[in-house]
Amino acid sequence: MGQITIHYDNKIVRNFAWASVIWGIVGMLVGVLIALQLFWPEANLNNQYTSFGRIRPLHTNAVIFAFVGNAIFMGVYYSLQRLLKARMWSDTLSQINFWGWQLIIVAAALTLPLGITTSKEYAELEWPIDIAIALMWVVFGVNMIMTIINRREKHMYVAIWFYLATFITVAVLHIVNSFELPIGFLKSYSYYAGVQDALVQWWYGHNAVAFFLTTPYLGLMYYFMPKAANRPVYSYRLSIIHFWSLIFIYIWAGPHHLLYSSLPDWAQSLGVVFSIMLIAPSWGGMINGLLTLRGVWDKVREDPILKMMVVAVTGYGMATFEGPMHSLKTVNALSHFTDWIPAHVHVGTLGWNGMLTFAIMYFIIPRIFNTKLYSTKLANLHFWMSTIGMIFWVVAMYWAGIAQGLMWKQFTPEGNLQYPNFLETVINIIPMYMIRALGGTIYLVGAIIMAYNLFKTAAQGKLVANEPAVVTELEHSNEAGHSWHRKLESRPLAFTLWVTIAILIGGVVEFMPAFLIKSNVPTIASVKPYTPLELHGRDVYIKEGCVSCHSQMVRPFRSETERYGEYSKSGEFVYDHPFLWGSKRTGPDLHRLGGKYPDSWHYNHMVEPTSMSPGSIMPKYPWLGEQDIDVSLTPKMINAMRTLGVPYEKGYEDKANADLEKQAATVVANLKKDGITVGDKSEMVALIAYLQRLGTDIKQNTTASK
Amino acid sequence: MQIIVVLICVSVVVASLFLWAFIWSVKSGQYDDDYTPSVRMLFEDQQSENESTKTK
Amino acid sequence: MKYSPADTINERLKCTHCGDACDGSIRNAEQQVFCCQGCVSVYQLLSDNNMCDFYRMQEGKTTKPGEIDAARFEHLNDTELQRQLIDYEDEKQYRVSLRLPQIHCTACVYLLEQLYRFNNHIAESKIDFVRKEISITVRKPGLSLRELVLLLHELGYGPDLNHKLGNRREIDPEKKKLLRKLAVAGFAFGNVMLLSFPEYLSTNGLNEPLVQSTIHVLNILLSIPVLAYSGTHYFKSAWEGLKKGILNIDIPIALGMVVLFARSLFEIISQSGAGYLDSLTGLVFFLLLGRFFQQKTYDELSFERDFRSFFPLGITRITHDKEEEISIDKLLPGDEILVRNEEVIPADAILNADKCLVDYSFVTGESEPQERFRGDVLYAGGKIIGMAVRMEVIKKVAQGYLTKLWNHESFSKKHDDRFKTITDRIARYFTPAVIGLSIAGFAYWYGQSPEMAFQVFAAVLIIACPCALALSAPFTFGNAIRILGRNKLFVKNSVVVDKLSQIDELIFDKTGTLTSSEQNDIDFSGIQWNFRQQQLVKTACRNSTHPLSRQLAQALDAEVCENIQLFDEVRGKGIAAIIDHQRVKLGSADFLELSDDERSSMPGSLVYVRVNGELLGYVRYKNAYRTGMDESLGELRNKYAMHLLSGDGDQEAPVLQPLFGEDAEMRFRQSPADKLQYIEKRQQAGAGLVMMVGDGLNDAGALQQAAVGVAVSERDGQFTPASDAILAGDQVPNLHRMLAFARDSRRVIFTNLGFSLTYNVVGLSFALSGQLTPVVSAILMPVSSITVVLSATLLTNYYAKRNGLK
To answer: What's the CA dihedral at A141, A146, A147, A149 to 10 degrees?
Structure first.
C-alpha cells in the first residue's frame, strides 16, 4: 500500500469530445433541414434521400446517439477515471468503444436516408446495427465495471451510480425492444404486433429518454456542476435519495405515451400514477443542482459554463414538470399528436442535454489541453445564441401545438367541426414553423461558434494524453471479510431461499414468451392479414417514414371520430409488425383512409400533393412511380409473417406473387381509367393498395352486421 | 396483452437488480459518510511526477 | 494574561497561516507575517510539501497549532493503550481512527487526506467530515502512533484522545440490518401495490388469465422475502414471548402475518381471489418504518458513553525520579504519579505536594476550585488547576471513588421488568381477546359450514391484526422523543417517555439543578465604592478568565481603563494589579489576608476588594435559581409529590419550602448514598414512579435508582452519567411543560387506540358475519394504519404546541 503515479487517459476523452461536436453539428444541421421542409417542402432538395420522412429519424438518431451518446462517453470517461482514481481498465476496449460507436453512427447515416428503417422511434436502425449497438454497449459496460472493480477510492460517488444504472437499463431496454425477425441483411419485422409492439416500443421509448438522456446526464451534472462551481453539491444525501427513488419509479411510467390508445385502462392508469410520482425525485434533483450554486451567483453571472449549467438544469426542471402534466389524461387529450410534444422534448434536449454538453465541453477541453479557453466572449455569445434559439424554438412550438390542438377539437354551435379540413389547422401554424426553423438555426450557429472556440483552444494548447496523478494504492487486506457467496453459503436457509427466488423469476421470464404467439388470436373476426401487395405497400410506407407525420390511431373523442371515422380498436392491429400508430400528426390520421378516395387521387397526391390539397406541406414523391418493389422477397415476407403468428395458410408463400400481380393489375386498371399509366410493380401501386386497405376490415364488419 | 407480462417481469428483474445494488451499497458502507465524498471529489489530483518518486 | 491595547494592533497585518491580526514582529524568511511561532512552523510544513493550495481553498479560520509538549504523549507508546486505539493491525500496517475536533472546512479535508505527503509511512488518510474523524492507515515499520499524533498536533489538528470513538463496525450492523429489511419490505410493498393495480381498477378483475396469474405469482414471490426476512423480528419476539408465557403484542402480529400469507396463498391457488399480499407487505413495511424512525432518533443521541471516556488514557508515573507514561489501567496503589494543569485525577490518591487546587466541577457541579493540602486524599475525577503536582495512588482505577459509585449494584437497571409499557399492557388483553373471538367465530360457523368457519377464523385474525395498536406507540413516542429533543430534553428511549407520562413523585437536587452553575446573582450590598474604584475593579476583572471575575466585569457598568502597569493573578485566589498607578487587589479573604473582624459570615461566595490599601468591602455571589423556576415548581407541585435532596446546608430552606409546597419533604446535607437510599425507601413504600432530577456524578446513584433519572447538563459534552434522559440546564424551568406533554402523548396513544378499535369493531362485525369481502379489508387495513401514523404525528405536534414546546 502506498502512493503511486497513474495516468488518466485523456485521449479517449478528446476523441469522444470531437466526435460529439462534429456529429452534434451534423445532427442539428439535419434538424434545421427538416424544420425548413415543414414550411418549404422543396427544401428536401427534390431528392428522396433528403426527404422529411427519411431524415427525420436521421436527425433524432444523430442528436441522441451521436451527439448526446458521444458526449456521455466523453463525460463518463473523464469523470469516472477521476472519481475512481483509476485509468480506464482497458485502453483497447476504450478504442473499440470509440471506433465501434462511430461506425454505428456512419452506418445509421447511410441506412436511414436509404429508407432502411424499422420505423420504431429512436430504434429505427436495422438488426445488424442493433447487434453492433448491443456489442459496443457491452464493451463500454465491461470497461466501466472493470474500472469500478479496480478502483482506488472505496466510495462510489453518486455520479457513478447514475452511470451504472444507465448501462444496465439501456442494455435491457435495447435488447427487449430489438426483438425482430430478419428477412434479409437489412430488413426485418418486429417480433411483436400492434398493441403489444406499441407497448414495448413506448416502454423502450420512455425509458430511453429516462436512461439515455436523463440518468447519465444527472451523473454528469453531479460531477461537473460542483467541479465548475468549486463547491460541494448542495446535499449529498439528497442526491443519493434522488438516485434511488428515480431509478425505482422511472421504469414503470412508460404507458403514459399510450393514453387514449387501445391499451387497457389499468395499464394507462398505472403509467399516469407513476409519471406523476416522478415529479418528486426529478425536482429533488433539479433543486439540488440549482442550490449547489447558492452563494456563487456572482460567479454564475460571469462564467459561461455555470450559466449554461443553470439553463440546463432549469430545462430539466421544466421538462420533468411538463412530463407528468402531459400524463394527465385531460392534458394529454389536447397535447398528444400536436407540436406541444416536440416542444416538450426540445426543452429537454436543447436545454438539458445540449446546454449541459456544451458546458462540460468548455470545462473539459481547456483542462485536457492544459490551456485556457480560447475566448470566453465567444462562449458567452454561444450561451446567448443557444438560449435565444431554444426560446424561439420551444415558444413557437408551444404556441403551434396548443393552437392546433384546440382547432382540432373546435366544434361549431351546430355541432360540426369548425375546421373539417385538417390542412386549415396546419396552414394556421406555418408561421410558427418558420420561427422554429429560425430558432434551430440560431442554436446551430451557436454550436458552430463553440466548435471554432474549442478547436482554437485545442490548437493553442497541447493534449495531455496521459495525465499523471498521485493516488493511493488500494490493498485488499484480509479484514474485508468473506466474499458474498461464502457469506450466503454460511447461511444455508437464506441461500436456498434466494436461489429459489432467482430460479423462479428466471423461469417466469423464460417461459412467458412461449405463450405469446399462441395467444395472438384476433379478437375481431373480420380483421384479415394483409395481402402480399399490401405488405409491400406497408414496407414502402415504412421506408418513406410516413409514420413521422401520420398517425394511425383514432382516439375515442368525438372530434376525432367525426373527422376520421370510428376509433381504433386493439384487435385491428394484430397483424401489424411493426405497429404504425405514430406519435405526431403533421398530417391527418390515416387509420380510416381506406376507400375514402379513388386510387387516382392518391397517385396525384403523391406526385404533386398541392394539386389535391392546395397549401399542403407534404413533399412530392415522384420516385414512387419509378421504383419497383422486389417481388422476389414476397415468399420470405409471407414466411416471416407466419412465423410471427399471422395465419397465412401453408404453402401460401408460393402462391403469394400470383395474388400480388392480380391485385396490382386492379390498381393499375383503376388508374388507367383516369388516364394514369404506372408500372404494375411500382412502389406507387403497392402503397396505394396498402392505403386503400387501411382501417377497412372493421368497416366491412359493421356494414355486414347492419 | 401478453407482452405486458414480459415487460412486467423484465422490469421486476431490473428493479430487483437495483434493490440488490441498494442493499449491497448500504451493507458495504457506501453511505456511512454522506457528506465528505461530495467535498473530496472537488480536489484535483496531484500531478507532479517527481513528487511521486520521492514518496514511492 | 498579557494585555495589549487595541491601537497597537495594525489592522492590515494578518497572520499568513491563521488570519489572526498580529503586530508584524514575527516573520519568516520570505517576510510573511505570522502571529506566533506555531503558525510559522505549520506554514513551513505546508510550503515544504507543496501544499499551499490549502490557503487558496480555505474559507474560514485555520486551526492554530497548540503548544506541544512531546512528553505528554509518551503514554501512546504503551502497547495496552495502542490496542485500545488501533482499529486494525497486521504485519504490514495498522489503522487508527481519531477524533479531530478542529476539522471545520473543506480545506481541512484537503490537507488531512494528503497526510502521506508529510510522512511517507502514511499510506492513506480518510476524513469523515460530519463526525470530525480521521481514519489513517500507516505502513509498518515506521511511524509510531505517538509520532502520528505529534504530526497531527504540529499541523494544528491535535486529536481528542479522551474521546474514545465508538467502534462503528460494532454499532452499525443492527441499524443497517433494519435498513435492509426496510428496503426489502418497501420494495415488495411498492411492487405488490403496483401489480395489484389491475385488481384495484377493474371490479371484475382481469380478463386476461395469463397476466393475472403472472401478477399473482410475482406477488407471492415478492411477499416471501418480506415474510421470511423483513418480518423475522416479529416471529422471534412472538416466540420469545410464548416461551416466557407472556402474550405480547407481537403474537397477534406474527399470527396475522402468517394467516394473511396463508390465506392469500390459498385464494390465489384456488383462484378464488387475489389475496391480501398488498396488506401483508404494507403492514410489515409500516411496522419497520416505525421502528426505523425510532432507532434513528435514538442514534442521534449518544447515551451509553462510558464514564471512563472522561478519564485520561495515560498518566505519567514517577519511578526513581524518572518519568514514564503508562496506561491508567496499569496504575497500582503505591505508584507515584504526576498530574499536570487541567488534567484529571485518574484514581484516588494522596497529595504529595504542599497544596493544590482541584476543580471538582464535573463531580459536584461546584464551580469553585477547592484547595487541598499535603496528605489530603484527592478523589478521582477532579481536575488539577495550576501547577503540576505529584500524588500517591491509593486505590486502583477500578476501585476509585467514582468507579465504586458507578458500579453500585443499583446502577444496572435490572428493575425495568417491573414496568409494563402501554402496548404490552393492552396486548395482555388484546391478544387473548382476538384469539378468543376468532375461535368463537370458528365454533359458531362450524356447525353451518366448515368452509365458512375457516374463512371467518382467518378473517377475524386478519382484520383484527393489531397494526394500529403496534404502530401507535412507536410513532407517538418516536415523535415525542423528537419533540422533546428539540426542547433539549434528550430521552433515552420510548420506554422512558412512557414512564415520564406516568410519573407520581418528583425529586429535585438543588445545586446545578434548581440553580445554575453558570450564572449567579451578584449582591453589592457589602461594598461601598465610587465610580473610579468600580472602573479599576472592572479593568482588573476584564483581564482574568476566572468565572467570578468575568461575571463581576459583566455586572459593573464602567469604562475600562487601558493603562495597566502590572497584572498578577493567583488562580482561584485573586488578582493583584496596578492600574493607572492605583493598586487594586481583590479575591478571597485569605488572599487579602483579612483579620477575623473583617471577614463576613454571609452565605455564598465572597470576593473582597481593596484599592490602594483600603478595604472597600465584599461582593457576594448569591445562589441564583433559574429564571422561571418558581413558576415551574408551582405547576409541578399541583400534580406531583415533591421532594428536595440537597448536598448543601439548609440556609436556603426558607426560600425553597414555599416553592416546593408546605408538605414537600426537603432534606439537606445529603450524601450521594443518602439520596440513593431515600429513593429506595420511597419506592419500597410504594410511592409509584419516582423521577429524579439532578446533576453531576454525586446524583448518579439516585438518577439510576429512580424510575426516571434526568441529568441536568449545563454544557454540551459535560459529563453525564448513564441516566435516562439529559436535560439542558436552561430548560429546567420548562420541565413542567415537558411532563405535561409526555402525559398528552399518552392521550394520543389512547385516541389512536380508539380509532383502531372503531375500525376493528366494524371490521370484526363484517368478519364474524362472514361478509368480509376483499374490498372491505383492503380498505380498512391500510386506512387504519395510515390514520394511526398520521394522527400520531399530527396530534403529538399539536400537543407540543399547546404545551408551549418548540
So the answer is: 130
Pick the CATH number of C476-518+626-741 from 1.10.10.250, 3.40.50.1240, 3.40.50.2300, 3.40.50.1000: 3.40.50.1000
Q: Cell triple for residue A2? A: 502506498
> What distance in Å separates the CA atoms of residue A679 and residue A681, rounded to the nearest whole number?
5
Residue whose C-alpha is closest to residue C350's, from C373, C327, C378: C378
To 10 degrees, what angle do helices A634-643 and A652-673 make? Answer: 120
Q: Which of C123, C124, C197 sits opposite A266 (nearest CB)?
A: C197
Q: Assign domain C311-404 one CATH number from 3.30.300.30, 3.30.70.270, 3.40.50.1580, 2.70.150.10.
A: 2.70.150.10
Interface pTM, i.e. ipTM: 0.75
Residues A494-546: pLDDT tens digits?
555 565 555 555 555 544 544 454 444 456 778 889 999 999 999 999 999 99
| Whole-number Å distance between alpha carbons of A10 and A680 | 59
The whole-angstrom separation of Cα B37 and Cα B23 is: 19
| C521-622 CATH, one of 3.40.50.720, 3.90.79.10, 3.40.1110.10, 2.60.40.2470 | 3.40.1110.10
What count of residues does chain B have? 56
CA distances from residue C244 to A371, C153, C232, C238 in whole angstroms, order as listed = 76, 56, 18, 10
**For the purposes of burial, counting CB atoms within 10 Å of the CB of C685, is it exposed (0-12), middle (13-18) or buried (19 or more)?**
exposed
Q: Name the A residues in 492-521 with CB < 8 Å from any C CB.
A: 494, 497, 501, 504-505, 508, 512, 515, 519
Which of A297, A295, A291, A289 is CA-nearest to residue A313?
A: A289
- Say if the Cβ atoms of C183 and B23 lie within 8 Å: yes
Chain A contacts in chain C segment 115-144 (CB below 8 A): 116, 120, 123-124, 137, 139
Mean pLDDT by groups of 10 residues along chain C of 806 residues: 42 67 71 72 72 63 61 70 74 81 76 81 83 83 82 80 49 73 88 78 60 82 88 86 76 78 83 77 78 60 39 68 70 80 75 80 60 81 72 72 48 49 74 82 81 71 66 80 81 80 86 67 81 84 66 75 74 78 85 82 78 86 77 87 79 78 83 81 82 72 81 56 72 89 89 81 79 60 73 88 85
Query: Taking CB atoms and an 8 Å limit, are B47 and A467 in contact across chains?
Result: yes
Show the cell assigned to C36. 506566533
Beta-carbon count within 10 A of A424 CB = 12
Please list the ranges in chain A whose pLDDT falls under 70. Answer: 1, 474-523, 699-706
Which residues, 6 or more positions from C161, have their beta carbon under 8 angstroms from its beta carbon?
Answer: C76, C85, C98, C149, C313
Q: Where are the beta strands (DSSP E) in C640-689?
A: 641-645, 665-667
- E strand or H helix at C296: helix C277-299
Alpha-carbon separation of residue A158 from A80, A705, C682 (angstroms) = 11, 62, 58
pLDDT score, position C716: 41
Task: List the one residue out of A649, A644, A653 whose CA is nearest residue A518.
Answer: A644
DSSP state of C336: E
Distant-in-sequence, close-in-space partners of C739: CB < 8 Å, separation ≥ 6: C500, C503, C636, C639, C640
CA angle C487/C492/C498 to nearest 5° reads 85
**Minimal CA separation from C205 to chain A, in Å:** 11
CB proximity list for C105: less than 8 A, separation 6 or greater: C57, C58, C59, C60
Grid cell for residue A70: 458521444
Packing angle of the helix pair C250-269, C209-225 (nearest 10 deg): 160
